[in-house]
Amino acid sequence: MKYEKGAIVDVLCVVRSVEDVVEITPKNGPTDRKMVKRDMNVVDKSGYQVRATVWGDDAREFKVPVDAIVAFKGMRVGDFGGRTLSLPSIGSLTANPDIPEAHMLRGWYDSAGRNASFQTYESMGGGGGGGGEGRTDQIKTMAAVRDENLGADHAEYFSVKGTIVFVRSTTLAYPGCASPDCSKKVIEDASTGQWRCEKCERSFASPEYRYIFSVNVSDETGQNWLQCFNEVGEQLLGCSANEMIRLQQQDEAAFNQRIADATFQEFQFRCRAKSETFNDNTRVRISVVAMTKVDYVAEAHRLNKLIEAFSM
């Protein structure tokens, strides 16, 4: 990144991953003052990945999905961990802007960037504009995910490549709120037959089912359970959760066929690992952020580079 610390820049990028909202206490402020922020990783055609942060209401209301194009206006360049971007209160963001540059970036990302490995600026260090090459984000093996205990201390993002060997289909989806901006679980009122959302304080004649299920993914080193949510579920099973629930209730053969079609398919998964505690039991949950078919040409080039590195 050619810009120095403190520079104000406009950025057009792809959202690679998004973290949860967190509340922090400013280092030099009063202890009772809290700030809310949300971090994300963004990429562009430069081949680099940068950590970007939004604050306050922008953090709370940020609903831009992974792989969306975002135009940030007025981002401040920081040097924590190499280079970072932060959106101050005077800045703004627009998701999927209808401009030629955004369409070009979308075309590049869909054709090549989605499966690319990106470098970071971490090795540049703080301060001046020192050079140096960034660290390449490697694809993890299943064994490495387990052995490195990813996600145990904090949320971590990584990619794995593997084959789906089992889809846990006993519970594929939950009944969700039918409001377009809400995905909370709804409960059926047996006396009225209506589905009630406590968050929206509204009732609906029927729920909007949303996927949440696990798949067992295997590679040459081992296997892991990955949790899939709605967009990934639709991509994998080829239909909405509403349709899948209908098949489960009315056409068991068609339901089983969709599960079978999803099995023994190889994908590259972008994942998020995070430790969660439920009923005093703590374990790391691995969720699929995005899923793509393996680009075997790109994969062959990646493996060839690894072979060359070992032979040096």
What key attributes describe this structure?
312 residues, alpha+beta, six-stranded mixed beta sheet, five-stranded mixed β-barrel, 18 strands, 22% helix, 38% strand
Could you characterize the architecture of this molecule?
With 312 residues, this protein is of the alpha+beta class. It is 22% helix and 38% strand. Strands 8, 9, 15, 16, 17 and 18 form a six-stranded mixed sheet that branches. A hairpin with a 2-residue loop joins β17 and β18. α5 crosses α6 (252-262). Mean pLDDT is 85; it is low at 123-137.
Helix-strand blueprint:
Elements (H helix, E strand, L loop, with lengths): L7 E11 L3 E3 L10 E9 L5 E7 H5 L8 E10 L5 E3 L5 E4 L4 H12 L27 E2 L1 H6 L8 E12 L5 E4 L10 E2 L6 E3 L4 E3 L3 E4 L1 E7 L2 E7 L1 H8 L3 H10 L1 H11 L3 E13 L2 E13 L2 H16 L1
Parallel strand pairs: 4-6, 8-9
Antiparallel strand pairs: 1-3, 1-5, 2-3, 3-4, 5-6, 5-7, 9-15, 9-17, 10-14, 11-12, 12-13, 15-16, 17-18
Strand proportion, as a percent range, falls in 35-45%
Shape: globular
Q: Please report the total strand number as a whole number.
A: 18
Could you give the distance between the termini?
30 Å
Our Rg estimate from Cα atoms comes to 22 Å
Q: How many helical stretches?
A: 7
**Uncertain stretches of 5 or more adjacent residues:** 123-137
User: Kindly state the mean pLDDT as a whole number?
Assistant: 85
**Helices and strands: which structural class?**
alpha+beta
Biggest sheet character: 6 strands, mixed
Helix-strand pattern? EEEEHEEEHEHEEEEEEEEHHHEEH
Helix content class = 10-25%
